[in-house]
Amino acid sequence: AAKKIIDWKKPDFIDINFGCPVNKVVAKNGGSSLLKNCAILASVASGVAKAVGNQVPVTAKIRIGWDEKNINATDICHILQEEGMQAISVHGRTRAQGYKGLANWEIIDACARSVSVPVIGNGDIHSGKDVKLRRETTAVAGVMIGRAAMQNPWVFREAKHYLATGEQPEPVPIPERWQMIVRHCRLATESNRYGNERQSIMAMRSRLMTYCKGFPGAKPLRQRLCTVSSLSEVEDVAAEYLQSFEESKTMASSV
Fold first, then answer.
1. In terms of CB atoms within 10 Å, which end of the chain has fewer, N or C?
2. Contact predicate 134/90, CB 8 Å
3. What angle do CA 153, 212, 91 make, to 5 degrees?
4. What is the mean pLDDT of the chain?
């Protein structure tokens, strides 16, 4: 499968996700279920690395363990290094946690110190301050941002700015946020990944709810967005909101 992907998409690297906690994946002995079976995990990692050879790097992502009683991330990192993984990403929660509780960066740090390949830490990274903290207090080679980007795609730009200047950037302007929202919806419909236009926009509804978090008048806005079913409806909502937003700014400045 890895060789087919290389021929098909010509990726920069192949990443094996041994950390996926989704039930339908785990039920088929995939993802984080392999954290309970080191022999199969090693076999998969070795097989992919050998099949790919020197064409592209092969990396892996894991969680710190299956549950609190079975935390084995450092052992898994040693296995993955031995089987040819050239970098390892570690999410600081167990599979049992899902996304609840806090990521355990002490275990991530221990993983980074236990192997010679780069270890990338992941979990509860929401800002440039978080990136700086983990880079300064752990041995990780890098930091991965995941769910925070689903609400705030600008988090990478903001983090780079903070690391370069030590200052928090200004919030992304509302008009720029709407440009991105409409663009995302347009790309979703053009990709046909979710089906036709109606199916695509309906699939985007939950993402739209997240994107408008923190907007002035977010509650009625979410009520409208949870019923949209076409790209033109999204564009209409954006245009109406921005008009109202600009009018409110004008009124406020004239007081």
1. C
2. no
3. 40
4. 94
Task: Tell me how far apart the terminal alpha carbons of the chain are, to the nearest angstrom.
Answer: 64
* DSSP string for residues in the chain: -HHHHHHHH--S-EEEES----HHHHTTT-GGGGGG-HHHHHHHHHHHHHHHTTSS-EEEEEEEESSTT-B-HHHHHHHHHHTT-S-EEEEEEETTTTT-S---HHHHHHHHHH-SS-EEEESS--SHHHHHHHHHHS--SEEE--THHHH-TTHHHHHHHHHHHSSPPPPPPHHHHHHHHHHHHHHHHHHTTTSSHHHHHHHHHHHHHHHTTT-TTHHHHHHHHTT--SHHHHHHHHHHHHHHHHHHHHHHHH-
Compute the distance between CA of residue 9 and CA of residue 11 in angstroms, rounded to an integer. 6
Q: What is the pLDDT of residue 248?
A: 83
| 25 token code pair | 């994946």
Contact in structure between 32 and 63 (CB atoms under 8 Å): yes
C-beta neighbour count of 99 within 10 angstroms = 12
Nearest to residue 116, comparing CAs of 143, 65, 64, 78?
Answer: 78
Looking up tokens 């695509």, which residue turns up?
200
2-124: CATH class: alpha beta
The structure's pTM equals: 0.89
User: Which residues are known to be catalytic?
Assistant: 20
Q: Once rounded to an integer, what is the mean pLDDT over residues 211-221?
A: 91
Which tens digit of pLDDT belongs to each residue from 162-177? 999 999 999 899 999 9
